[in-house]
From TrEMBL:
Signal sequence bounds: none
UniProt-listed Gene3D superfamilies: B-lactam Antibiotic, Isopenicillin N Synthase, Chain (2.60.120.330)
Iron as UniProt keyword: yes
Family indicated by similarity: Belongs to the iron/ascorbate-dependent oxidoreductase family.
Residues of the Fe2OG dioxygenase domain: 134-245
Organism (species): Oikopleura dioica
Pfam family, one: 2OG-FeII_Oxy
Source organism superkingdom: Eukaryota
Keyword Metal-binding: yes
Keywords of the record: Iron, Metal-binding, Oxidoreductase
Protein name: Oidioi.mRNA.OKI2018_I69.chr1.g570.t1.cds
Length: 278
């Protein structure tokens, strides 16, 4: 049972963090050592860009199979893979013929968003090396911004289980998450679960500390347990960006995935295990 304690997910002002503001720095330290999750505000990712990200993601799922396949053949700045290239990427695919995809725009939208988030990631990892007094490159050396991965995850409208993703910790350095307005993500803090509800007006990003970060910081950064609760009658999206070692010699990547309770909807067979959304 949930105890009646007051806990609010820490909110870090990225602008102030960059200036090494003392109060922000101490909130940040508390957030990563005690909670393992925080919101980032004032992060400089324009709303126009996140709106575009949402629109192209939704359209890519809603259109026809033939239209989606255009993305597979397109050679742009991103590598696209995942369940979106199945004939039926989700249960009630509308196959809307009126939706035409602009491959160039999709490519540049994901690339621009990922570049912004990767830059935030680079700063946060560097900053953590600093505050934890770690050797130079201990964290940053395990992240290659030019090969970052973003998933555009569409969750089913009528899930059959209580959770889309059960309780787990990410096998990453960090995950920088954007959700749409529906929510569903919950984090565990001191044996209680708390919903991660973003205020759409503030356009917060969620930053989630993973196992690799915990190990490389000699246990100082706390990896947060989290889960995603199912919500009925809502098709919803989330866009996690994974800060993780990526040994594949490839470009930045976007994966359009869809989760079903029968398991991942046929992960790209050529993909290696570093691409799991965990
Ligand atoms: Fe996760």
């Amino acid at each position: 049972m949930q105890e009646n304690i007051t806990f609010e997910i820490p909110i870090i002002d990225f602008g102030l963090l960059k200036t090494r503001d003392e109060a922000t720095k101490s909130n940040f330290l508390k957030a990563i050592t005690e909670v393992g999750f925080f919101f980032l505000k004032n992060h400089d990712v324009p709303k126009e860009l996140t709106d575009r990200l949402e629109l192209v993601s939704r359209n890519s799922y809603k259109t026809t199979f033939e239209e989606r396949m255009k993305l597979k053949d397109f050679r742009g700045k991103m590598e696209v893979s995942g369940s979106i290239f199945h004939e039926k990427p989700f249960q009630n695919s509308p196959d809307d013929e009126s939706i035409k995809l602009d491959e160039k725009e999709i490519d540049s939208t994901f690339f621009d968003y990922l570049t912004k988030i990767s830059n935030i990631g680079v700063f946060l990892l560097k900053f953590c090396e600093e505050v934890f007094d770690l050797p130079n490159g201990r964290l940053l050396g395990n992240f290659e911004p030019k090969k970052a991965i973003i998933d555009a995850v569409m969750l089913e409208e009528n899930p059959t289980e209580e959770f889309e993703f059960e309780c787990h910790r990410d096998n990453r350095l960090m995950t920088i998450l954007k959700q749409d307005r529906t929510g569903g993500v919950e984090i565990k803090y001191k044996d209680n679960w708390y919903p991660v509800l973003e205020d759409p007006k503030k356009e917060f990003l969620g930053v989630n500390i993973g196992n690799i970060m915990n190990n490389l910081s000699d246990g100082k950064a706390k990896a947060v347990y989290h889960r995603v609760r199912s919500i009925q009658n809502q098709t919803r999206f989330m866009w996690p960006v994974f800060l993780t070692p990526n040994f594949r010699p490839r470009k930045t990547a976007v994966k359009f995935l869809r989760f079903t309770h029968r398991g991942w909807y046929d992960f790209d067979t050529v993909d290696d295990e570093t691409d799991f959304l965990l």
